[in-house]
Design goal:
It contains 13 helices and eight strands. The protein is of the alpha/beta class and 250 residues long. A six-stranded parallel beta sheet has the order 4-3-8-7-5-6, with helices on both faces. It has a two-stranded antiparallel ribbon with strand order 1-2. Strand 7, helix 8 and strand 8 form a beta-alpha-beta unit. The longest helix is centred in the last third of the chain and has 17 residues. The N and C termini lie far apart (38 Å). Bound molecules: uridine-5'-diphosphate. The site of uridine-5'-diphosphate has 13 residues, from helix 9.
Length: 250
């Protein structure tokens, strides 16, 4: 796999890549013979690792871990180890879909409420001519035991090479890490949170101006105010990062 530098941001090792470079790494994963995982943690997740250290191993075990979100990019700058930029999971996911539409590799959408993955499949197949979504399953199944094994069997039967796991954090990363050994055809497993809702059109991404001003989080907060509790991790993370840097300097 192409050799990119890893940058440690508050204990999580991020691959220092642009969106296009990340997609190239993804193409190598699809061509390879190993089952690879792709995680896209934002500031909230890095803060979760800081508060509950047992999550470090999980997130650092990803074969490609990219910085999703303005908070992580900002922290890297504060720590004087800047990353090339933000790699939004939802955008990387689409890049891989565009690639698979050309290569013919099958794709499986796992996650979100019943019907959403099918709608996402329909919309993406219209957008990317030639895309083969070979299977879907909603994300509301028991994450262990028989129900979980039945989902794995369905993915294997589909022959999909690219798998989107959209079960919410940190459940999706844990589930794929616990189950990847059982996968027979999938080569690239991307944990993409709410992306299927975006692809299906049931959730909207922030208008471009919010993204440009690094305020996508603000748009989300305005749309989904109940996220406030979770989102308090962001200022905590940034202030904590300044404090961490100051302590290191002394
Ligand atoms: N979800 C799911 N199964 C669950 C819980 C959640 O499939 O047991 C889905 C949910 O419907 C949504 C996604 O996981 O599509 C999580 O979206 P969110 O925007 O909250 O992403 P996060 O920030 O958690 O990555």
């Amino acid at each position: 796999m192409a050799n990119y530098e890893k940058i440690n941001i508050r204990g999580v090792n991020f691959l220092n890549v642009t969106l296009d470079e990340a997609a190239k790494v993804g193409e190598e994963m699809l061509r390879g013979d190993k089952v690879c995982t792709v995680f896209t943690p934002n500031a909230e997740i890095v803060q979760l690792c800081i508060e509950q250290n047992e999550y470090y191993d999980l997130y650092n075990s990803g074969d490609m871990v990219v910085a999703d979100g303005a908070g992580v990019v900002k922290a890297a700058k504060i720590l004087k180890t800047p990353v090339k930029g933000k790699v939004a999971g939802v955008e990387l996911g689409e890049k891989m879909l565009a690639h698979c539409a050309n290569s013919g590799d099958g794709v499986f959408f796992l996650g979100a409420k019943p019907g959403v993955a099918d709608e996402a499949a329909k919309k993406m197949a219209e957008k990317y001519k030639g895309l083969r979504v070979v299977g879907t399953n909603d994300g509301y199944f028991k994450k262990e035991g028989e129900e979980s094994d039945a989902v794995i069997a369905k993915i294997n039967e589909s022959g999909a090479k690219l798998l989107f796991v959209c079960l919410g954090v940190p459940v999706q990363e844990k589930w794929i890490t616990d189950n990847k050994e059982k996968l027979t055809s999938a080569r690239m497993c991307m944990c993409l949170g709410g992306s299927l809702d975006v692809y299906a059109g049931t959730a909207k991404r922030a208008p471009k101006i919010f993204i440009k001003l690094s305020c996508e989080w603000l748009y989300r907060l305005l749309k989904e105010p109940w996220r406030l509790g979770r989102m308090m991790k962001l200022p905590k993370f940034l202030f904590g990062t300044y404090a961490y840097k100051f302590k290191k300097k002394k």
